[in-house]
Amino acid sequence: MPDYPVGAVRTNLRIVAALSSRTDAGVTELATELDLSKGSVHNHLTTLERLGVVVAEDGRYRLGLRLLDVGMQVRDGMELYQTARSPLAELASSTNESTALVVAEHGDAVYADVCDAARNDRRVRLGTRLPLHTTAAGKAVLAQYSLDEVEAYVETDGLQRRTNRTITDAASLRDELRTITDRRLAYDRGEAFTGMRAVAAPVRLPDHPPAAISVLGPGERFSGKRLEEDLPGLVISAANQIELTLTD
Amino acid sequence: MPDYPVGAVRTNLRIVAALSSRTDAGVTELATELDLSKGSVHNHLTTLERLGVVVAEDGRYRLGLRLLDVGMQVRDGMELYQTARSPLAELASSTNESTALVVAEHGDAVYADVCDAARNDRRVRLGTRLPLHTTAAGKAVLAQYSLDEVEAYVETDGLQRRTNRTITDAASLRDELRTITDRRLAYDRGEAFTGMRAVAAPVRLPDHPPAAISVLGPGERFSGKRLEEDLPGLVISAANQIELTLTD
DNA sequence: AAAAACCGTTCACTATCGCTAAACACCTCG
DNA sequence: CGAGGTGTTTAGCGATAGTGAACGGTTTTT
């Protein structure tokens, strides 16, 4: 079996991906970048335009907001999001920091909800995807995996480095995951973004994929007793609240 | 030329649309609904799964959050959004109501940003699409169209009714658009959702498609002097601020 | 002001591949 | 145990996605 049974869909999504990283693009530009013929790119673009995904303007093309609508619809349909919503908002106001709900998907930690206590730093926003092992919430999710699943993750995705503090050693990762399981708490000390820290608690639910919630912010505010005691207590109790409302 | 040069993309997006309206789905279920063979649906689903758009679980399939990421990326890339962000937030806090940034796309009013003063009513969220003529902001956008463009909109999209107050008559629409242009202000008195009102101001920018910002909320709070004077003043001055920062 | 160079669009062609229908493997029932 | 569900796989054919070249338009170069 070929890797992609419907090859045209792959081509199409390659075009969408190329468009998503720029404000707009021309046919030739995309054709050369993706190594396709101009005619083919043109066909895909007109198809996407007819379907309302792409907007054509003066012979140039850009992605519209249709995919945002679909994505938001998916997110709103998540039972976990619905119940985590208000606990997450309360956690944000009680800590006066940004909070997030994270689920695992295809080896990524995906931010399914983000509450900004105030100005967000724009590095983590709704929908952001980061390698699981580089974030507090991601590690809290990994800690719920079986040893085989963790190994499979390390094998397929690799322990990609993002900062000089990122865990890139499989043994260290296993050690940390054990600690996380024991203490029900995960830390991120600048492992995804330099200078950014986070505290996360796993959210375990029957018949649900593993998830986690986290509090994140600049390193200056995340230290001492606040980092070691205050934030952990608030995060864990919020996680408890979510688990309880969803297991009744 | 056929309507969709790359037919497989159309099939694929039909499957995505079907998936987006439910939590998950099976192959047979989708095949019967879309009038496709099981094998074809299966091919599309495995392709989407390999590409990270769909998540397979126990032989059932659901949309993942990849499209949300793409959609948010598109939104964040919009220059208008970036500059409207803080004025919109300020407008939300000064009115203590929800505010929105709306752009037109394929005949829809699309909510490119939504600030919730408090609990949102969930009927309008980020990415929501409504017919242009049914919302205050949408009408503020239509008022920037030429007469031909308005006629084209009425012709292709039709004046679909959403509530008993929706404008469904082309002549009434033209009259109202003229008033909106003159006063630089558009109202929605329950034309999209019964009991929901809004005040909107057009945002005109050179080299940018027409846009608008609006304040929206329950009808009880939107009446009298507040509706006729206070809110209009605040909305228009916010629109001014956006236009000025973007035309320098 | 030519003309060269670029663009997006269109066209004819063909090897590919998307789609169908049927068979298959697996599961859960009564 | 078989009957009726799944999701998956297969064989095969007809449609089509992609190519490469040509077309008309605009912009840039000379």
Write the layout of secondary structure elements.
The structure is a homodimer of 248-residue chains.
Chain A: H1 7-20, H2 27-34, H3 38-50, E1 54-57, E2 60-63, H4 66-76, H5 79-95, E3 98-105, E4 108-115, E5 129-131, H6 136-142, H7 147-157, H8 170-183, E6 186-189, E7 196-203, E8 211-218, H9 224-247
Antiparallel strand pairs in A: 1-2, 3-4, 3-8, 4-5, 6-7, 7-8
Helix pairs in contact in A: 2-3, 5-9
Chain A binds a DNA duplex (30 and 30 nucleotides) through residues 1-2, 5-8, 11, 26-28, 36-40, 42-44, 46, 59-60.
Structure described in brief:
The structure is a homodimer. Chain A is α+β, with helices and mostly antiparallel strands.
Helix coverage percent of chain A? 40-55%
Give the SSE string of chain A: HHHEEHHEEEHHHEEEH
CATH superfamily of the largest domain in chain A, by name, is GAF domain
Total domain modules of chain A:
2
* CATH top level class name of the largest domain in chain A: Alpha Beta
Largest interface: A-B, 55 and 55 residues
β-strand percent of chain A reads 15-25%
Secondary structure tally: strands of chain A: 8
First-to-last CA distance of chain A: 44 Å
Annotated CATH topology of the largest domain in chain A: Beta-Lactamase
CATH architecture descriptor text of the largest domain in chain A: 2-Layer Sandwich
Mean pLDDT of chain A: 94
How many helices of chain A? The count is 9
- Round the Cα radius of gyration of chain A to an integer and report it: 20 Å
Q: What best-fitting shape of chain A do the alpha-carbon axes yield?
A: elongated
Keywords (chains A, B): DNA-binding, Transcription, Transcription regulation
Domain IclR-ED (chains A, B): 66-248
Domain HTH iclR-type (chains A, B): 6-65
GO molecular function, one term (chains A, B): DNA-binding transcription factor activity
